[in-house]
Design a protein that fits this description.
It is built from two helices and 27 strands. By secondary structure, the protein is mainly beta. It has a single domain, classed as 7 Propeller (Methylamine Dehydrogenase, Chain H). Strands 23, 24, 25, 26 and 27 form a five-stranded antiparallel beta sheet that branches. The protein is globular, with a radius of gyration of 23 Å. It is found in: Cytoplasm.
């Protein structure tokens, strides 16, 4: 309750000004010119600038993970977790998925464990936010399978899905549950459509149009009213599915065709996009959600690396964490709804690459 939003914080210059005003030359204490000029050169800094990261004790880890699939598409995070368990695609044939209980950390047995038998290679997967036992899995056969995990975890292989959703004509690469309405799921596919599914009726409810190339990423706004996408055709699109199947707005996205991600930040008023420029430099972009045609408000170049940066946003602190598959570094930025929009914090470096 004591948290103040970035916009209500005093600007960095105001403290200096009020100090010099209250302690004028007569008091013999005035802020030095060098102090002021240093602040104007360095600009504002984040409250979380000196954040330190550390790896938790091994007692909390799940170790001896064997045969993980490292071939999930770049549009997928490659695994998914909720507060109870984590789902990991495996390399073995038949699209097997391991389900690990977070309440049982430690070394996993050397012998094979019971898995979900998806029947086809896994393209993406996500947990239902309203039912921690339900897992949606997008397959390379253009179908979405819904799996119900037994209480307490898998004791034997799971072979029959609760439901199979069909409608896409080509491989699916992203699925996301609706954040505030249960039994709604969105998916994007190489057929260049975005489909919204009613899981109660086990059928397609809406098919959104307007993309001319591969859809790299999609994200529901936190209130669930809008859906944003970023595409290989270098366009950002904003949909309001309740009102139209066509995009409400379009704007210029990252130029690089290697991949991109997007998330909603700053109380759903802004979109943060991670992508590449034409020379394969990794960049992050900030857009105002109501003014996509105006283009990005701010762009920061980070480094040159092959993997797309995956952004994770913490609403309480307005800090975004970015890392990619195979990276050893996690970038941290505080995002604010006013210039300069990105305030750099300490990055975290691990001793081994992230898989």
């Amino acid at each position: 309750s004591g948290y103040s939003s970035p916009s209500s914080l005093a600007s960095p210059g105001s403290a200096t000004t009020s100090l010099s005003a209250s302690t004028g030359p007569s008091s013999g204490f005035a802020s030095s010119p060098s102090q002021k000029s240093l602040q104007s050169i360095l600009g504002p800094s984040s409250r979380f600038r000196h954040t330190q990261g550390r790896v938790l004790h091994r007692d909390t880890h799940l170790t001896n993970l064997r045969g993980l699939s490292l071939t999930t598409p770049g549009e997928s995070d490659g695994f998914c977790a909720n507060h109870e368990r984590v789902a990991l695609p495996l390399l073995s044939a038949g699209g097997q998925i391991a389900i690990l209980e977070l309440s049982k950390p430690g070394r996993l047995p050397d012998v094979a464990m019971p898995t979900i038998q998806n029947g086809t290679a896994v393209a993406d997967l996500c947990w239902d936010p309203f039912n921690p036992l339900r897992l949606a899995v997008a397959g390379e056969d253009a179908k979405i399978r819904l799996w119900q995990i037994p209480e307490g975890g898998l004791q034997e292989p799971l072979q029959e899905p609760e439901a199979v959703l069909q409608g896409h004509t080509e491989k699916i690469y992203s699925i996301r549950f609706h954040p505030v309405a249960s039994d709604l799921l969105v998916s994007s596919s190489y057929d260049m459509t975005v489909r919204i599914w009613d899981l109660n009726a086990q059928q397609e409810a809406l098919c959104l149009q307007g993309h001319t190339d591969q859809i790299f990423s999609l994200a529901w706004s936190p209130d669930g009213k809008k859906l944003a996408t970023v595409s290989k055709d270098t366009r950002l699109r904003l949909y309001e599915p309740r009102h139209s199947l066509q995009p409400q707005q379009e704007g210029p996205g990252p130029e690089g065709g290697r991949g991109a991600r997007l998330i909603w930040v700053c109380s759903s008023d802004y979109l943060l996009v991670s992508g590449f420029d034409s020379r394969s430099e990794r960049r992050i972009f900030m857009y105002r959600a109501q003014a996509l045609p105006e283009g990005p408000l701010s762009i920061i170049g980070l480094d040159v690396a092959p993997s797309t940066l995956l952004p994770f946003y913490d609403e309480d602190t307005s800090v975004v964490f970015l890392t990619g598959k195979g990276d050893m570094r996690v970038f941290l930025y505080e995002v604010t709804p006013e210039p300069p929009y990105f305030l750099e914090c300490n990055s975290f470096t691990s001793s081994e690459p992230h898989k």
